[in-house]
C-alpha cells in the first residue's frame, strides 16, 4: 500500500524512479509524484536556487509520465511515490512528495501518522503553513524544525539527525524517505511499513517492495522497525532512532526481474493464473516423501504438542485458511477455525501454548495479520506463517514459516498465492495427520498421490479458458451473482465471489449451498447467475437437489463439475469442467475456472483487471 522508490548514484534518477514506480503501482494508484536533485557540483552551482525538481499528478502513473514528458529532470538523486489515499482526496496537492515551503526538503511516506492532528495544530501555531490535507505533511515540518534548530545552534545541519528527532514526536506507522537539496543523501526510516534497500556499485536504491529493485540488483537489506538508513552513492549506514549504528545483513533475492514481468500476457492476473501449475510444483517440491505416504516439512514445531489450531489472515488468504481449517479438522482431527485478522487481534482470543496460531499471507506485510500474529504471541501461542514473500515482516516474527514459493504476485487480485496456500495447508494437514496417527497408510498414500497429480490437473483445467469465456459472455450483464459451495468448497465459493466483485465490480455473495433455502433463495430469478461448486463429494446429491431448487425458480446455474460427471450437466445450463481429484484436494482445481470467470467477465466489462478501483495490494494500514 503506497509504493516508495528512492535512488542515489550515477544514473538519471528520474528514469530509475519512474521505472520503479511502474513496478510498484499495484501498491496504490490514485496519484503519484517524484522529486529529483542534481548531484553535479557545476550544474548545481549554475542553478539559481538549489531547489528540488518536483512533479506530482492525480491519477495513475500514466498521468505523471505525461507530465514529465514536458520537462527534463536532471540529477542522480531522487525519490518517488504512488499513493493509496488515507488522509485527503487523491489530487495533485495531496500527492507525495510533500515539500517544505522553500522547496528544499521533500518527504514521501507510506503509513498513517496517528497523532497528526495535534502535531499539525502545534506546528501551525508555530508558523508552519500547511498546503495539503495529508497526515504526511507534518513530517515535512517536523524535519524542517529540527533541521533549522541545528542550523540556528551554529552546527552544520545533519539531515539524518533531523529525521530521527522528528520521528521522536510521531505515533503511528511509517516507511518514509527524506531528501534535501543541500545533501547528497537519502534518509529513510521504517516503523511497521516495509522498506528495503537495494545495493549497487556506486549507487544505492530504496523501495517498499523487492520487484522495484529486480532490474538493478538482487542484493538487499531489509530495514526493521526503528531503523533509520542513510543512503549515499558509495555507502549505506543504518542506525536506530538513538543514532547508534545497527548491523543489518545483506540478503540475496531469489526472484529474477523476469518473474515480475507480464511475460507476454495481457495482464499480470492472467499470467499469475497460468503460473499455478508451476507454483504448485514449487509449493509441493521436496516436501512429498519418497515413501509415498508422508510429508516432510522443515518446521521446528512438534506436531504432538498442538491441541488446537487458530488460523488468522485477511481476504483471500483467510479463505485459504478456511480450507486449511477444514483439512486439519478432517484429516488430522485437530480442532481448527479461522478468525479474520482484523477481528482476531481485538477479540480477546483464547489461545495458549498448546494452540498453534497459523497466519497466512502472500505479502507477509498485511498489518492486520502482522498484528494478529503479535497478539497470538503475546498470549503464548506457538506461531506458524504460511507465506509467499521472504524477508517480509511476518517471516521475521513467526516461530516457523512454510513458504509457498509462488514468486512475485503483482496482480492486485490474488490468484496463484491462493492455490499455493491451499497446497501448503494440504501438506500441513497430512503432516499433522501422520504424526497424530489419524491418517492410515492407504489414506495418506492417496493424498500424497493426489498432491503429486495437482500441477497437471490444474494445467488441464487452464486449457478450458474458451469454455469459461463463453459463460462469461452469458453472464456479463448480470448485476449480481450468488456463489454456492459446501464443506471444503464453501471457501471456493467465497473466493470465486470475491474475485468477481473486486475486479468486475459486479456484486456477488457466497453461501453454504445448504443455507440457500434459508434466505438467499428469495433473490433467485432468471437474471441472477448462481455459480455452484458441484465436484465429487459425499454431499453431491444434496447439492444437486439445491440446483434443482434454483432451476425451479428460473435461476441460471453455472456449475463447476468433474470432467467425467454426467449428473450435474443434466441439471445446470452451464458446466465448467475440472479434473477429478480427492474431495480434500478439490478446492485447488475447482477455484481455477472461477478465477478465469472473474477475469473474463471483468475484461468484457472493460475493467482495469490488474488495478481495480479503490484497492491496493499489501494492505499496510488498519
Ligand atoms: C483479494 C486479495 C486480498 C488479500 C488480502 C491479504 O484478491 O488479494 O483480499 O488476499 O489483502 O493479503 P496478504 O495475503 O498479502 O496478507
Mean pLDDT: 95
The total number of structural domains is 3
Beta-strand content estimate: 15-25%
CATH homologous superfamily title of the largest domain? Glucose-6-phosphate isomerase like protein, domain 1
Rg, Cα atoms, Å: 26 Å
Strand order of the largest sheet: 3-2-4-1-10-9-11-14
Net shape? globular
* Helix/strand structural class: alpha/beta
CATH class of the largest domain: Alpha Beta
Uncertain parts: none
| Gross CATH architecture of the largest domain | 3-Layer(aba) Sandwich
Number of strands: 24
What is the straight-line distance between the termini?
A: 11 Å
Oligomer: single chain
User: What is the CATH fold-level name of the largest domain?
Assistant: Rossmann fold
Helical proportion, percent range: 25-40%
Cofactors, ions and other ligands in the entry: fructose -6-phosphate
Largest sheet: 8 strands, antiparallel
Q: What is the tally of helical segments?
A: 19
Amino acid at each position: 500500500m503506497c509504493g516508495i522508490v528512492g535512488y542515489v548514484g550515477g544514473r538519471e534518477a528520474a528514469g530509475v524512479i519512474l521505472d520503479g514506480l511502474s513496478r510498484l503501482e499495484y501498491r496504490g494508484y490514485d496519484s503519484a509524484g517524484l522529486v529529483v536533485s542534481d548531484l553535479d557540483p557545476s550544474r548545481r552551482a549554475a542553478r539559481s536556487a538549489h531547489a528540488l525538481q518536483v512533479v506530482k499528478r492525480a491519477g495513475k502513473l500514466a498521468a505523471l509520465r505525461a507530465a514529465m514528458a514536458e520537462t527534463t529532470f536532471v540529477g542522480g538523486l531522487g525519490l518517488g511515490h504512488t499513493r493509496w489515499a488515507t488522509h485527503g482526496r487523491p489530487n495533485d496537492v495531496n500527492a507525495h512528495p510533500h515539500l517544505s515551503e522553500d522547496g528544499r526538503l521533500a518527504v514521501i511516506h507510506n503509513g498513517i501518522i496517528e497523532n497528526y492532528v495535534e502535531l499539525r495544530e502545534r506546528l501551525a501555531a508555530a508558523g508552519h503553513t500547511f498546503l495539503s490535507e495529508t497526515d504526511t505533511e507534518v513530517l515535512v515540518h517536523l524535519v524542517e524544525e529540527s533541521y533549522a534548530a541545528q542550523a540556528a545552534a551554529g552546527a552544520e545541519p545533519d539531515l539524518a539527525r533531523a529525521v530521527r528527532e522528528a520521528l521522536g514526536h510521531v505515533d503511528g506507522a511509517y516507511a518514509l524517505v527524506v531528501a534535501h537539496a543541500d545533501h547528497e543523501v537519502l534518509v529513510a526510516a521504517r516503523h511497521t511499513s516495509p522498506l528495503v534497500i537495494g545495493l549497487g556499485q556506486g549507487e544505492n536504491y530504496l523501495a517498499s517492495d523487492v520487484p522495484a529493485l529486480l532490474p538493478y540488483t538482487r542484493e538487499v537489506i531489509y530495514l526493521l522497525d526503528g531503523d533509520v538508513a542513510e543512503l549515499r552513492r558509495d555507502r549505506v549506514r543504518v542506525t536506530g532512532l538513538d543514532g547508534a549504528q545497527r548491523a543489518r545483513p545483506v540478503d540475496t533475492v531469489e526472484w529474477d526481474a523476469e518473474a515480475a514481468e507480464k511475460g507476454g500476457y495481457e495482464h499480470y492476473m492472467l499470467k499469475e493464473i497460468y503460473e499455478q501449475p508451476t507454483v504448485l510444483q514449487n509449493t509441493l517440491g521436496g516436501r512429498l516423501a519418497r515413501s509415498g505416504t508422508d510429508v516432510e516439512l522443515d518446521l521446528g514445531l512438534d506436531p504432538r504438542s498442538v491441541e488446537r489450531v487458530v488460523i488468522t489472515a485477511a481476504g483471500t488468504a483467510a479463505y485459504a485458511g478456511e480450507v486449511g481449517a477444514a483439512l486439519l479438522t478432517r484429516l488430522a482431527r485437530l480442532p481448527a477455525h479461522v478468525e479474520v485478522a482484523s477481528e482476531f487481534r481485538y477479540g480477546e482470543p483464547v489461545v495458549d501454548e498448546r494452540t498453534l496460531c497459523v497466519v497466512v499471507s502472500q505479502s507477509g506485510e498485511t498489518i492486520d495479520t502482522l498484528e494478529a500474529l503479535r497478539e497470538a504471541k503475546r498470549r503464548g501461542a506457538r506461531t506458524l506463517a504460511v507465506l509467499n514473500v521472504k524477508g517480509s515482516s511476518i517471516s521475521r516474527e513467526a516461530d516457523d514459516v512454510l513458504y509457498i514459493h509462488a514468486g512475485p504476485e503483482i496482480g492486485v487480485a490474488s490468484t496463484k498465492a491462493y492455490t499455493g496456500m491451499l497446497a501448503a495447508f494440504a501438506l500441513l494437514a497430512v503432516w499433522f495427520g501422520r504424526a497424530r496417527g489419524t491418517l492410515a497408510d492407504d489414506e495418506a498414500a492417496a493424498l500424497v498421490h493426489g498432491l503429486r497429480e495437482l500441477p497437471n490437473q490444474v494445467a488441464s483445467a487452464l486449457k478450458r479458458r474458451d469454455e469459461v469465456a463463453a459463460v462469461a459472455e452469458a453472464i456479463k450483464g448480470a448485476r449480481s451473482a450468488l456463489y454456492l459451495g459446501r464443506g471444503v468448497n464453501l471457501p471456493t465459493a467465497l473466493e470465486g465471489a470475491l474475485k468477481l466483485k473486486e475486479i468486475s465490480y459486479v456484486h456477488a455473495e457466497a453461501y453454504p449451498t445448504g443455507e440457500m433455502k434459508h434466505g438467499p433463495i428469495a433473490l433467485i430469478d432468471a437474471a441472477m447467475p448462481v455459480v455452484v461448486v458441484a465436484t465429487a463429494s459425499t454431499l453431491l446429491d444434496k447439492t444437486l437437489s439445491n440446483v434443482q431448487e434454483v432451476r425451479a425458480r428460473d435461476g441460471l446455474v453455472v456449475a463447476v463439475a468433474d470432467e467425467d460427471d454426467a449428473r450435474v450437466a443434466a441439471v445446470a445450463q452451464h458446466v465448467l469442467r475440472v479434473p477429478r481429484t480427492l474431495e480434500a484436494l478439490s478446492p485447488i482445481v475447482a477455484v481455477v475456472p472461477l478465477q478465469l470467470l472473474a477475469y473474463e467477465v471483468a475484461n468484457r466489462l472493460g475493467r482495469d483487471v490488474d488495478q481495480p478501483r479503490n484497492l491496493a495490494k499489501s494492505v499496510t494500514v488498519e
